[in-house]
Write a structure and sequence with these properties.
Elements lengths: L2 H17 L6 E6 L4 H17 L2 E6 L6 H13 L5 E4 L9 H7 L18 H12 L8 E5 L6 H10 L3 E5 L5 H9 L3 E4 L18 E4 L3 E3 L2 E3 L10 E2 L6 H17 L3
Parallel strand pairs: 1-2, 1-3, 4-5, 4-6, 6-7, 7-10
Antiparallel strand pairs: 8-9
Helix pairs in contact: 1-8, 5-6, 5-8
Bound molecules: NADP nicotinamide-adenine-dinucleotide phosphate.
Length: about 260
């Protein structure tokens, strides 16, 4: 099943689940940065909410918003009961410290799963893991290589794979090329999240029955590009666009529903 088909199927299931809930779930999206990428991501999230019959409200603040002002709003959203959860769209303007904002969002409302005390996983790794399980990708005892070690993708992805008893290796910008080539050659699952278009290419050898999950999204003159070139000859390779981005959007609503459980 393609990722598009999988997402469509899961959306139908979520819609059905929501239709049985006594109260419609609700979320707020706080936007401070008015850049085109953020606008596109938010548009997608609002469209998903509409399709799933979930209340979503965009709270748009001016670019000049101070950290203090944003923290005041977060405090209100943390303590009010208008929304089951909320997100603050990243990146934020320079005057605001992103880590301080992530820590200020209560784990009870944090649908991005960024807070260290959150019981939820960040959306990108969560969406990927759900998809791998759905596709019955064998995980137990398999060699998984995660390229990239960010707090929102690489590290939590490695943790989820480890929880499934994969042998996990995390690679990064300081990994030597020969070492990277060796790990990749023996990998059953490769998750690449580095933001370097076409980094995984024919310089490397891949197991024919391996799975490549391409998280990278880079805007180039030739359009959106992933971290891998197309058609690397493996069993499953997720496309860009139309791949991990869709899984991430889906996981946002899966996280929201988890927060509403027991309410
Ligand atoms: P990030 O915070 O910039 O981290 C990038 C990571 O890649 C770092 O750990 C860095 O290593 C590593 N790296 C950079 N160049 C490398 C190289 N040549 N070889 C090996 N490792 C290298 O990025 P991020 O937030 O994790 O995002 C990564 C990519 O995924 C971006 O393209 C982003 O747009 C995309 N993304 C997509 C989605 C989605 O929904 N599809 C969601 C999130 C992110 P060091 O730590 O050593 O610097």
């Amino acid at each position: 099943m393609t990722i598009k088909e999988y997402v469509l199927k899961r959306k139908q299931e979520i819609k059905q689940y929501v239709s049985c809930m006594q109260k419609k779930p609700s979320l707020a999206i706080v936007q401070v940065n008015d850049d085109p990428a953020s606008n596109a991501y938010i548009k997608g999230k609002l469209k998903d909410a509409e399709e799933l019959n979930i209340n979503a409200k965009l709270i748009k603040l001016p670019q000049s918003t101070t950290q203090e002002e944003l923290l005041t709003l977060i405090n209100k959203l943390n303590n009010g009961d208008n929304y089951d959860g909320f997100i603050v769209q990243m990146p934020l303007p320079n005057q605001i410290n992103e880590e301080a904002i992530k820590l200020a969002i209560s784990p009870k409302k944090d649908i991005d799963g960024f807070h260290p005390l959150s019981t939820l996983s960040p959306c990108t790794p969560k969406g990927i893991m759900n998809y791998l399980k759905y596709e019955n990708v064998e995980l137990l005892g398999k060699n998984a290589v995660v390229i990239g070690r960010s707090n929102i993708v690489g590290k939590p992805m490695a943790k989820l794979l480890l929880n499934e008893s994969c042998n996990v290796t995390i690679l990064h910008s300081k990994t030597k090329f020969e070492d990277m080539a060796n790990y990749i050659k023996n990998a059953d699952i490769i998750v690449v999240a580095i933001g370097r278009p076409g980094f995984l290419d024919k310089r490397f050898n891949y197991k024919p029955d391996s799975v490549i999950v391409d998280v990278g999204i880079s805007r180039t003159d030739e359009g959106l590009k992933g971290d891998a070139i197309k058609d690397l000859g493996v069993k499953i390779q997720t496309p860009v666009p139309g791949g991990v981005g869709l899984l991430t959007r889906l996981a946002l609503y899966e996280n929201l529903l988890e927060l509403t459980k027991g309410k």
